Amino acid sequence: MPEKLPDKIIFSLGEVAKSIQRTIAGRYKQVYWIKAEMNKLNHYTHSGHCYPELVEKKEGKVIAEMRSILWNGDYQRINQRFMEITREPLKNGITILFQATISYDPLYGLSLRILDIDPAYSLGELEREKQESLSRLKQEGLFYANKQLPFAAVPKRLAIISVETSKGYSDFLKILNGNPWGYRFEQTLFPALLQGDKSIPSIINQLAHIAQRAEEYDVVAVIRGGGGEVGLSSYNNYLLASAIARFPIPVLTGIGHSTNETVSEMVAYKNAITPSELADFLIQRFHQFAVPIEQAQELIIHKTRQLLLAQQDSLNEYARYFRLHSVHLLSQQQKALGHHFIRLTIASTNRLRQGMQTLLHTQKALQTTVLGDIKDHRTQLTAMEKSVQLLDPQQVLNRGYSITRINGQALKTTEHVKKGAILETFLASGQVTSTVTQISTTTHE
């Protein structure tokens, strides 16, 4: 009961909440079909329940927001049917048409309990998104951009966006590396999520990494397998498709489904239904380069053999002609050589005789000249010997002179002589050692 005061009536929060609860329960007794964007599914795996956040947007701004409840049993039923019809599970960001009751709880507030979801409506929304992406890409001139890029004659260097544990990726490598022709491919894996909402930024991020090193690769291959057509709506996203269309080298897709081609596949340079088919395509490109080369090689070998045979015959003819001509020419040269040899022998004998006579005259003249020079040099040598003998110190000593040395040096002046110094005096017939006791200096003007 509300508290009454003289000038006002006061309600407790619980009373207000219960009043709202009664009002809403009385007003909203039916089950309603409601359209909204499921911003977040909020699925809790431990309980199986979902608490979707529902919003309505206008010009990109949220104008209404409400929480809802999707109990585990209803979720399993709805999600199963959703996947059968749309090929997609319930997920964040899709627009849904759902059946719900409206209730208010004093503790948890206003909420919608979702009883059913019409997958056909969401399928239409997914198709609408696909068509919008296609229209925008065509308007921007990007739809054929990647398809118009030059393709390597031998697509050897591959940048692969996939999940390392994916069966499709495993099949792709098995076929590629096990080809019976021995073609060798260089593969670099760039791991990414390949289905669900998170696949869009994951793939775009890896494309950005590859673009920074685009010159290192010939093609990019997006490989996904094992999922069938479930979870493919992300490949209709404009941002992902645009990143593929704008990519600087050819992008190949093999995401494992056979119908309902996605926008990303449409704008890619080549779309294969499965990873295995994509591997076969790359091997075939090697074939397209290798087979003409092999054919050209065989043609060259064949033409070379024909040319060698023709040249061999021609060479044999030349050889026979050369042998006959050589024998004839050799005979002529031998005769000419005999005549030259006789003339050369006679001329050589005459020159040798003249040379011997000249050599004898030269020998006699040389002997006369050498003997005269020897006599002159002997006279000069005798005179020099007498001069040297006169300069011999012993001859000087014999004439009465002497040589005085101090410390092994000849003494010429008294300048460096001190009292007590030991002097050695050399005479013609011996040697005298003396000690200096007195020094007298003679001054010469």
From TrEMBL:
EC annotation from Swiss-Prot or TrEMBL: 3.1.11.6
Gene Ontology molecular-function annotations? exodeoxyribonuclease VII activity; nucleic acid binding
What this protein is called in its record is Exodeoxyribonuclease 7 large subunit
Organism ancestry: Bacteria, Pseudomonadati, Bacteroidota, Sphingobacteriia, Sphingobacteriales
Any Gene Ontology CC annotation: exodeoxyribonuclease VII complex
By sequence similarity, the record places it as follows: Belongs to the XseA family.
InterPro entries in the record, alphabetically? Answer: Exonuc_VII_L, Exonuc_VII_lsu_C, OB-fold_nuc-bd_dom
Residue intervals of the OB-fold nucleic acid binding domain:
12-117
* Domain Exonuclease VII large subunit C-terminal, chain residue ranges per copy: 142-434
Q: Which UniProt keywords apply?
A: Cytoplasm, Exonuclease, Hydrolase, Nuclease
Which GO biological process annotations does it have?
DNA catabolic process
Q: Please indicate if the UniProt record lists Cell division as a keyword.
A: no
Catalytic activity from the UniProt record: Exonucleolytic cleavage in either 5'- to 3'- or 3'- to 5'-direction to yield nucleoside 5'-phosphates
Q: Where in the cell is it found?
A: Cytoplasm
